[in-house]
Amino acid sequence: MAKTFLVNAGSLSASRTLLALSQVLVLPVVARFLTPSEFGDMAIAMSIVIFAQMLSDAGMGRSLIRQTAYDHAEWNSVFWLLTGIGAALSIVLAALAPVWAALFDRPPLLGLVAVLATLPFLNALSAVAGAQMEKDGQFPRLALIRTVAGVLGIATVLILAVMGAGVWSLVAQQIVLAGVQTIGTMLSSSFRAGAPRNFTPLGNHIRFASDNVGVSLIFSAQRQGPVLLVGAFLGAVPVGLFSMAQRFLTLPRNAVAGPVSQVVYVRMTKVQRDLKDVAEVYVASCLLLAVAVFPPMAVLAGSAANLFPFLLSDTWGQAAVIFALAAPGMMIEVATGSAGVMLQAMDRTRLRLWMVSERAILRTLAVAAAVPFGIEVVSIVISVFSLVYLPRYVWFTQQVAPVRQRAVFGSMAIAAAASAVSWAVMSYCAQVFGGWQMLGLACAALPLSWALAILPQIPTLRRAVAALNG
Questions:
Q1: In whole angstroms, how far apart are CA 15 and each of 9, 162, 267, 270?
Q2: Closest CA to 258 of 153, 189, 334
Q3: Model pLDDT for residues 243-270, shown as the tens digit of each residue
Q4: Residue 339 near residue 289 (C-beta atoms within 8 A)
Q5: Coiled-coil region(s) at which residues (predicted)?
């Protein structure tokens, strides 16, 4: 049991990290065959699709995981409910495609949204099967399924981009990714859907899901708000540049924070009666996420001015500035992001809805005020807001557990200091060295930056892993 957390989180994180790195490696190829305008169209199309995808699960999978006893009739009822919801969302999304295209005055959006409308249905089909695998602790198998799906998706986008498919190569990647994950999850899970009859009451799950639907929609709005605002006020090319920067900014959330949150959630549901343990698990997750995420983000941000044009072509040079300015905010959000998981595990979904709503509204207003001044100002605002709002964010965790604000800030302090040194050194080197030299320096600097973040706090890290292992 001592290595349970590391095995589960490590397998998921390794899978997502492999895929994230693979996507980074293919971007130099794809970026040379697609224009910023095409990336912008895909970002705008996915902004509405992501809303539908959030609704397709509605958090009912997480609600099922919380149940101590397994009732197949209950799980089967949730499966058919989600299948119906997923089908309805896909139909509505396809019907909205011409409206979305007209709203942004971008005719290509019609076809893009219509095809991407299949994604919510695919997600809904696999939600219950995926929840069963998580409840059974089959995280390594889930990681394998995601790896296979990701590799096939990457192969798809590469082949189609080189063949001249343009933005449709990105669409095909999303379809292949969702399709393979759905098929793999349904075949690997021990859950098997029965006939759609003998439905059981789902009032408790629906209550849990209703709050989570609100959280998912608002959280999605927070993420997609800058994309939509930049697209509406500045046009497709700036939103394409912003989208490219976002692909790098979201790497730590997808590769590290997502897997860690899945495992932390299961751990917190087991200790939810001991509030001190809950607080300890949250601070431990902040520490490990900061150590894992801060150094690579700092190295890349310091090298971005050199590496982005070198790897992606000069067309994408401005994306480096966007990335570097928004990186500190994303680092803070990723490191502290388990707060929402904690409130969900403690069945304080209404409080979580309040927290996410407040944060999303304030952040969107700040971004909206910055948009007229340009995309660089938007990126600065994203970072400043994350830092300024952090004490309030911690306040929400204190409503359910004795989380000390000093402990949260302290958990990130050493990693932040080490990352600041790495960022400064790499920024200086980016002005002196060329493309291949800078790439080699960045690869060499990353383990050194991690060492600076890890070595001064090895005993603390051991205690954090122990808290997460239980």
A1: 10, 26, 21, 25
A2: 334
A3: 888 888 887 877 777 777 777 777 787 7
A4: no
A5: none
